[in-house]
Amino acid sequence: MLVIDEESLSCKFCFELLQDPRVLPCGHSMCTRCIMANINFKKLKLKEPFLQAPVLGNQTKINKLYGTTSDQSNKKEGICFNCPSCNKECKVNHSEDVPSVFPINYDLKSTVENYMMEREKGETCANCETNIVQVECEDCNSRFCEECFTSIHAPKFFASHKKAPLGTILTVGKCKRHNNHTCVPIDEHMEEAKAGMSNKIEQVDQDIEFLYVALEKIGSLQTKLVSNQETYEMRVNTMIDNYLAQVEDKRKEILDKSQSEHQERMAIVQDQYSTMSGLIENMQGIKNAFEKVIHFRNITSLITAEHQIESTLQDLNCKQLDTSPIFFTQKHNPSNLDFKETTISKAVSQLVFDYPLDIKFNICKECISAKPTPEEEPKEEASLAPSLSSSVPKQPESIVQFEKSFSNIVAESLKDEVPLLMKEDDDEYNVPTTKKKKIRVKRR
Description:
2 domains, three-stranded antiparallel beta sheet, rod-shaped, Transcriptional intermediary factor 1 alpha, ubiquitin protein ligase activity, two-stranded antiparallel ribbon, mainly alpha, zinc, Znf_RING/FYVE/PHD, 7 strands, Herpes Virus-1
């Protein structure tokens, strides 16, 4: 019995047994229904030629029109479709009838019909081709009836072959589309695929669980970082505010003291000014009296006036007069004050630029990337960020040290090194001693 491959009797378009096969111009056969399906699809595209084209703009000009509209025919060009076996074009005119263009392949049609009848009847023995198969040989990979299997395997050479009932031997065929590829049963492949997918799902679940643990750790670390940053900013602001308050208090103290001493000095100067103005007026009066006495003709009146004027001059000479004005020494010169202001500015600049702003928080990346083990679970928090394990961060201790040094800088800068005010116990600031000026009058 000739064994026929079912693939050779199948249509390359629908992959089923050929039904009413017709010969195409290229020599291959195709079902009549598949040919009509291709032609009807091409006709549908010709009736609506612009459905597959891109949308045209308002200013687009059409130079050529391919195909036809629904109310026109395309008799000259016809309809073309490709052979599913060799991909060659097969043309059909609109006026031609499809059955008359592609003749029926009667030989192939008869072969298909016989194959279908044999398949319905049952498989026959591979040796006698008459009886229905009853057993199969595991070594020959063939099916026989009982009589043929016994006769063929009677020789000693075939005596070792094993007989098996039908359907117990699983045969693995070759792939019809790929050379040197073997096929496996779909059930077996499905079970293997399910097992592989189950393993992958389990692995993905483990990865997701690990990511959730890492995400929780990162969230905890983020909270600690925010808390540390808030504490850091609060301490910095508090420290700067305290120093600014100290500077403001010192500034107010200096200005108040300066204003107080300024008022005292102004009172002294004004008193001196008033005293000296009065003395000038008295001396001017004595001068005028002398000028009048000179013109007296009575000697008695002249001598009396002279004694009175001399007594008045003696009273004036008994007073301590400050003939030299108050002046500022070199410490109160504007240039010296500018130098002191520069010194304070440098101290403040040292405060700003020496401030420890390079504080960093260390994070252990290995603790995040590595999967946690049962032994590492209790140390989960410490392994994640050892620098943040304590409630008070380690780095801000440098702020405490800096506060001490900064306090020393501010204290040195705000000392009374600049004597902005005059002090009476300082020789350089004392008012010069008063010189007594005596006026002597000789009698004539």
